[in-house]
């Protein structure tokens, strides 16, 4: 899991370079997601945020999440309808997620050759890929050891 402080500094720099606003709410949502090794659902984020900001409502969280995804700082885990921090937002290529079904830990991979093969095969079939989500569900070594 990436160091939250480093991730926040990187996010700050990236937003500054792109000329986009990294508001306190956006920052806080990213901090909450980054502090969790698994995915967080939007309503879990809302519950946490509401303890700090009484005015926090679902649109507040969803707008922050949309921004963070757009900036490549957060990924949506489609199968869990949850969100996870991107440990390397400077990486502009596709990614794959390893998700432990026991503890919820999420690891991000960058197998560019896999992405390139899928994109090329789609192109060969006359299909233009707009977004690619590859999620691999299984068990991590820690959970397997605990089962023994």
UniProtKB/TrEMBL annotation:
<comment type="similarity">
    <text>Belongs to the Fur family.</text>
</comment>
<dbReference type="InterPro" id="IPR002481">
    <property type="entry name" value="FUR"/>
</dbReference>
<protein>
    <recommendedName>
        <fullName>Ferric uptake regulation protein</fullName>
    </recommendedName>
</protein>
<keyword id="KW-0238">DNA-binding</keyword>
<keyword id="KW-0479">Metal-binding</keyword>
<keyword id="KW-0804">Transcription</keyword>
<keyword id="KW-0678">Repressor</keyword>
<dbReference type="InterPro" id="IPR036388">
    <property type="entry name" value="WH-like_DNA-bd_sf"/>
</dbReference>
<keyword id="KW-0408">Iron</keyword>
<dbReference type="InterPro" id="IPR036390">
    <property type="entry name" value="WH_DNA-bd_sf"/>
</dbReference>
<keyword id="KW-0862">Zinc</keyword>
<keyword id="KW-0963">Cytoplasm</keyword>
<keyword id="KW-0805">Transcription regulation</keyword>
<dbReference type="Pfam" id="PF01475">
    <property type="entry name" value="FUR"/>
</dbReference>
<dbReference type="InterPro" id="IPR043135">
    <property type="entry name" value="Fur_C"/>
</dbReference>
<comment type="subunit">
    <text>Homodimer.</text>
</comment>
């Amino acid at each position: 899991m990436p160091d939250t402080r480093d991730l926040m500094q990187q996010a700050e720099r990236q937003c500054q370079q792109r000329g986009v606003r990294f508001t306190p709410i956006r920052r806080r949502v990213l901090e909450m997601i980054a502090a969790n090794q698994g995915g967080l659902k939007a309503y879990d984020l809302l519950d946490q945020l509401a303890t700090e900001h009484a005015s926090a409502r679902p649109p507040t969280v969803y707008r922050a999440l949309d921004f963070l995804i757009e900036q490549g700082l957060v990924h949506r885990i489609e199968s869990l309808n949850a969100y996870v921090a991107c440990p390397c937002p400077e990486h502009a290529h596709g990614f794959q997620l390893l998700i432990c079904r026991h503890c919820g830990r999420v690891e991000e991979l960058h197998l560019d050759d896999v992405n390139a093969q899928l994109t090329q095969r789609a192109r060969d079939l006359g299909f233009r890929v707009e977004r690619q989500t590859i999620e691999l569900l299984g068990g991590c070594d820690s959970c397997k050891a605990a089962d023994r």
